[in-house]
Amino acid sequence: MTERGFDLADRVAARRDSTLYRDIAPVDRVAERSYFAPDPGRDLPVLDGDEHLVFAANNYLGLTQDDRVQDAAAQAAEVVGTGAGASRLVTGDTLVHRDLERRLAEVKGTERALAFSSGYAANVGTIAALSPDVVFSDAFNHASIVDGCRLSGAEVVVYDHCDVADLERRLAERAAAAPEAAADESWLVLTDSVFSMDGTVAPLEAICDAAESVGAWVMVDEAHATGLHVDGGGIVQRAGLEDRVHVQMGTLSKALASQGGYVAGSESLVEHLVNEARSFVFSTGLSPPAAAAASEALHLARHGECRDRLWSNVGQLRNGLEAVGYEVRGDTQILPIVVGDRDDALALERAVRERGVVAPAIRPPTVPEGTSRIRVAPMATHSRSDVEHCIEAFRAAGEEVGLL
Ligand code: PMP
Asked: Which of the residues 142, 224, 229, 246 is marked catalytic?
């Protein structure tokens, strides 16, 4: 009989032989945080019992272990239930979801917001539901945007990373190529606001100008910005572009210390998504504890002092790493040290880990070949001495592996 299998063992073995192999819990790496860490700044590794400082989490405000956020989740579990039990459109809708969405819309300055079960589901479901004729997408956009574009069936035009001149050129070229059709087509410009592996910030105002000049819509993924800027908003709020960005999307899983995603925009956008976004319609509602935790975290991001502490730690860490000789890219809370070679990145990861700091190497395919890096990210809950410890670990590790 013909063999129609998938040779998975061989494929895994081939990958195992390369430095691109990954495992969920390799013994020489640690989980991002412990459920039992006694001090929020000290996210203890769960696997080997040694104490390490985690400088790589997306839990930027350190709110996953904040009492108030934990209490909100616990209370929602107790009062509302641990799971939504069904799609929001069936019986899964609760006041906890409505409260979260009201707060998101307030912070994002929009008429309405809609919670999804993940940021991935929000991007894929929203882009597919908009079903644009053409999308113009930044070359470094997140995988969930890329997958949303594929699923939407749109013609995809990729422009150079954060390069508005290239975007303008491609918009003009596409308009010239099919002038008749272009007039009736729906066009969508898609960008992350903060690029998670580079710490770069998209030039949103110029992107809006370019899009408006051809009548295109703009959709911005604020996954790595939500909660961190003006009044708990993202870069869209910092730049005052609420009225020019048609679709604001983000996750609840990073600064908002929970799980899930959201889209904020006009009443008609949300109404459309409630009806047409398949990842919303055909998926169980966000769990009430996750919704409650995110809602409380958003409240704290908006009114608390955790944002100030984060930005103070970012300044201290960036200055310290530069002072010991590293070139630190980007201009956000994400501080990438691009090493280049993937073996060097792994060596640096191991050497800082031996000094009590967890900051995993990022390798292809997450980043392009030859640009492997360590993505350092402080949290609001790190103390000044934690940050000093991190800087010293990177200094000593960099010297040991020959990068400084
Ligand atoms: N967009 C961006 C820019 C992200 O970094 C991520 C998560 N890594 C997502 C979307 C997906 O969000 P989630 O993890 O909530 O599915």
From this structure: 224
Task: Sort strands 247-251 and 217-221 into parallel, antiparallel or unpaired.
Answer: parallel
pLDDT digits 0-9 by tens, 210-225: 999 999 999 999 999 9
Tokens of 51: 């104490």
| 196 classed as catalytic | yes
Could you tell me the CA-to-CA distances from 351 to 51, 185, 212, 361, 391 in Å, in that order?
15, 53, 49, 11, 13
The fold adopted by the segment(s) 24-54+305-400 is: Aspartate Aminotransferase, domain 1 (3.90.1150)
Entry pTM = 0.91
Q: How far is the CA of 175 from the centre of ligand 1 (A)?
A: 31
DSSP classification of residue 277: -
Residue 136 has pLDDT above 80, yes or no: yes
Number of neighbours of residue 365 by Cβ within 10 angstroms: 8
Rounded average pLDDT over 126-154? 97
% the chain with pLDDT above 70: 90
Helices (H), 52-118: 67-79, 95-108
Which of 194, 253, 286 to probe ligand 1 with, by most ligand atoms within 8 A of CB? 253
In CATH, the number for domain 67-303 is 3.40.640.10
Query: What are the domain boundaries of the chain?
Result: 24-54+305-400, 67-303
